[in-house]
Amino acid sequence: MIKHLEDKIKLNRLLNLGTDLNRIHDPDALMERILKEARDFCSADAGSIYIAEKNHLLISYIQNDTLSENKVVYKEHHVPIDNFSIAGYCAKTGEIVLLNDVSDIGSDLPFKFNSDFDEMTGYKTKSILSIPMKGSLDRVIGVLQIINPLKNNTVSGIFTEEDTKTLLHFAGIAAVALQKAQLTKSIILKMIQMAELHDPSETGAHVHRVSAYSTELYIAWAVKNNISPEEIDRNKDILKLVAMVHDIGKVAISDLILKKPGKLTDEEYEIMKKHTVFGAKMFEEEHSEFDQAAREVILNHHERWDGNGYPGLCPAPDYESDKKTQGKKGKEIPLFGRIVSIADVFDALSSKRCYKDPWPHEKVIDFLKENSGKMFDPELIEIFIDNIDIMNSISQKFR
Ligand SMILES: [Fe+2]
Ligand SMILES: [Fe+2]
User: Fold this and answer.
1) Is residue 51 domain-shared with residue 84, that is, in the same domain?
2) Pick the catalytic residue: 8, 54, 250, 329?
3) Could you confirm whether 75 is annotated as catalytic?
């Protein structure tokens, strides 16, 4: 009777959790939560999520209650997808692996337990339950693994068939979330390639440099403003990608204007300005943090600190009208927009374009200083110039 009641409570918790997990949009936060809940349901002391990348698994999330102080020890660990390790075998074959004593793996199994982690941390792994995370076409995209079931708070339990079923459920949710995040990233990368074909000034090197300058500028700003390391980590990855699509809206601008060798007429320039709103429209339905950040960058990278930029505070229905609006001013311009605007101008002035030679380095720096508080956020310009050596090394790297 008690068992029946416990099962019912567990099932209810699982059902409620499904709705709860659906509300988490950030892939990292979602993965951490899935791992935590999977461990809770199976009373596991530790666990990890591996993500498949080409022919290896990257250990991407680690939780260990016993070693909570040292949780990042193994963060960059790679495991080949082959038959010789437990997670590798699980990913290669798509089979579930349940081992209640890793020191006694039968000789009929091709893999061995790798004790490197235990030797490095002093942890003692006894039992492992490894489940493949399967995406579309049954392709294994990762592995969810839990370690050492607890009984009365000590490592003395065993994993059961029921634990396997529970973990399969969590592996399914994790696989869907991971695929969604990977899809967003791959769509953005394809858009960048498409824009490169259309716009001769937005070369691969330019978008990579703008992305790298922006990321470094954000990190330096965030450290100075006491943003938590976790938030910095999350935001820098998003900005790195979305800064690359700052001019994606130019795909909607006619070749006659975009590739015109001479100066644009006033009318042509007004059309050109619309690349900000056309681009932002592509990300209007905000499905993820990427969409939201991409919109922020694309719409605002030509706004000016003094309010004389564009496109200004135009509401969505006015995007395609010719109504002129006042530009956004100061901190009305979102942070990512203010950052990319500096990175984009710095790179445009420093590089050769079909209509101009690169400016000398000192002249570019003078331009940034002169426009601090006019075109650009003064705090960000100060940080950018303080970090000019890093920016110069980026410019060398993507030459
Ligand atoms: Fe632009
Ligand atoms: Fe650009």
Assistant:
1) yes
2) 250
3) no
Indicate if 243 and 339 belong to the same structural domain.
yes
State the average pLDDT over residues 355-366: 90
Residues sharing a CB contact under 8 Å with residue 277, sequence separation 6 or more, in sequence order: 249, 299, 311, 314, 319, 320
Please say if the pLDDT value at position 200 is more than 70: no
CA of 207 to the centre of ligand 2 (A): 7
Last residue of a domain, one of 152, 180, 208: 180
Using alpha carbons, list the distances in angstroms from residue 9 to 2, 12, 150. Answer: 11, 5, 20
Range of the domain at 335: 199-397
> How many residues are recorded in the chain?
399
280 alpha carbon – ligand 2 mean position (Å): 15
Tokens of 375: 């075109």
Q: How far is the CA of 84 from the CAs of 69, 90, 121, 264, 292, in angstroms?
A: 30, 10, 22, 63, 42
> Ligand 1 centroid vs 237 CA: distance in angstroms?
21
Tens-place pLDDT, residues 126-166: 999 999 999 888 999 999 999 999 987 787 778 999 999 98
- Closest-approaching ligand to the CA atom of 276: 1
Count of structural domains, the chain: 2
CA of 199 to the centre of ligand 2 (A): 10
CA–CA dist 121, 45 (Å, integer): 15
Question: What is d(CA 125, CA 110) in angstroms, rounded to the nearest whole number?
Answer: 19
Residue whose token pair is 């500096």? 342
| Closest ligand to Cα 297 | 1
Whether 297 and 386 map to the same domain: the answer is yes
List the one residue out of 294, 292, 311 whose CA is nearest residue 303.
311
